[in-house]
Structures are given as structure tokens and as C-alpha cells.
Amino acid sequence: MALPMLKSAIACTDFSRTVQPYTSQLNDLPQQIYQSATNLQALKQIYLNTNPLISAFAFSLALVPIVLVISEVNKNYSQIDRVWSLLPTFYNLHYVAYAHAKGLPTQRLDSLAIISIVWSARLTYNYWRKGGYQIGSEDYRWEIVKNYVNNPVIFFLFNILFISLAQSLLLFSVTMPTYVLLLAAPITRAQVPDIVFTQVLLGCVFLAYTADQQQWGMQFPQNICKVIESLITNALLPTDFHVAKNSYQKSAKVPPSNKFTAADLDRGFNTKSLWALSRHPNFLAEQSVWVTLYLWSCWATGTYYHWAGLGAAAYLCLFQASTWLTELITAGKYSDYKLYQKRVGKFVPSLWGEGMPSANAEGKKTK
Question: Exposure of 351 by Cβ count < 10 A (0-12 exposed, 13-18 middle, 19+ buried)?
């Protein structure tokens, strides 16, 4: 059997019953797929006969050599970044499809599928407008890390263990609570609290989108930027921080009808709206999505914690490390950033934070 026989909700979180008995399937799966590669019906049966957590894990492992080879051939280490916004939704949709194929109740999972698609759309769009899908684009932090390591052998090992392997497994692991929700589906049906969790998840995605808009505004690839800048210059289109800053740096004039002052734009980074409350409101919302999914699985199974929370915990750890590096670079670039760090919370708004001081007199908006 591909799924355990469970009689209680709390049993859905028992690792020894829901995961351990199926780990041996991982050994046979590659050979089974190879032997049935040309037989669609046989592949479908393999899919149904394999525990969905194991097949998702196997897929995340299969991606590792592909990502590793592409990154080393191109010397571009943002290969996982390009699928970051897609893989968690792929895994969630896999669990939903499996539940439908097995005839399990899917009301809760169907809601999650819709939210996952919305989450992917927001993150994919934001990555695209920052140029992430342009040929040769790479996260600037990888070059800094590579220069810091300054050893091709060590960096190659880092690519294997972290960039290719750990990140692929991480994107699988944040969706492990969905597997728990799948197991709980026949035992605990959807109730009012499930609606609350869906609303919270959508709220997190909306918060992240709002923070993105405030930071990047109407940011587009180069071939569209000139048209956008023309509309901004003629006060026909409102804009947000980065577009306003780019326009200001080119013309030395604050865009008409803009909410930022010259002092705001000279500072070099956004401290308005959500960014006045949190240095990384988009990161806060992004982490909250996967913590909320985990808490949803806890509620559905009547537990306070369980093994599937390891993915969300690892996600939080990654954001702590990556944000530390990002801020280290930013503080070296902008003189006011250390003051911003002291006055505004990194993720969660600080109750005792003073906020950034108002723009000085020279930063009054141009008329």
C-alpha cells in the first residue's frame, strides 16, 4: 500500500507509520521508471503505488545533478533560483493530484492548490521583473560568496552540498505539511478554521505583493523601461521606490506626483510604508506562508508540533543567513543603512523601534 491505514488524526504525524515504512520504495523507483518509460499506463500505476512523499522526495533528488551540471557548465549558480517560485507549488499540486486519484476528500487540499498557484504567480512575476529570467542573470551574492571562498574545489563542494542539493531538498521539505494534510483528509473534514488558515495564507501572499510593489513599483525589463520612464516623467503614471530612484538618478529631478522626496531617493533604499515598519516585509510574509502551512497541518491533526515542521524551520534558518549577507552588502553600500538597522526591525516590526528620521529640509518634494 502506498498510504498508511490510520484511524486517528494524531497518527498522521507519526513518522514511524507515515514515512519510515515507505523509504524502501526510493531504492526501486528509478529502475521501475526506467523499465516503464514508454508505457504510460505502467507509469501511472507506479505513481499510484508509490507513497506521494517518497515520489516528491525522489523528484527533488533527481533535480540535483541537473542543476549541478547546468550551473557548472554555465558558471552561473542561480539555477535553483529560477525554479524557486515553481517547485513548492509543483509539490503541492502533486499531493492534490494524488489525493484526487486515490479518491480522498480534497476540499482542504484544493484550497491550498489555488493559494499555491497565487503564491507562485506573485513570486515568479517579481523574479521576472527584476531580470531573473534574462540570459546570464545571476544573484549578485553568489559572486561575492565565490570570491570570499576563493577556492574552486571548495566552492564546487559548496555547489554540490548546498546550492544544488540542500536548496532542492528545502523546496521539497516546506511542502511536507501538505502530505500530512493529505493523510488527515479522510479523518478530519474541512471546517471553519480551515477557512481561517486559507485567509491567512492569502493575506501573507498579498502582504508580500504589496511590499514588492512598494519596493519595485512598475519595474519592467529594459525594452519597456523607456516607455514607463516617459509616463512617469510626464506625471501620467505613479511609481514606487526603485523606479523613482532610477528616474531621479538620470534626471536629477524627483518624478512629478511622486511620494518620495529627494532626500528619500538620495538615501538609496526604501524606508516608506511597510518598509518603515520592517526592513524586509516581503521576507516576513514569505516565511509566514510556510509557517502557516505547517500550523495548519498541526491544527488538522490536533498536535502542537511534528516532524513536517523541519522544512519551515530550515526555511527560517536560510532566510536568517541570506538576509544577514544581503544586509552586510547593503550596509557597505549605503551610509544610512546601519541607522535603519538600529531603528527598524529586520522582519517583525519592533515595538520599541524609533523608525527612520524624517527626510531633511532639502528633501522636500519638488512641485
Answer: exposed
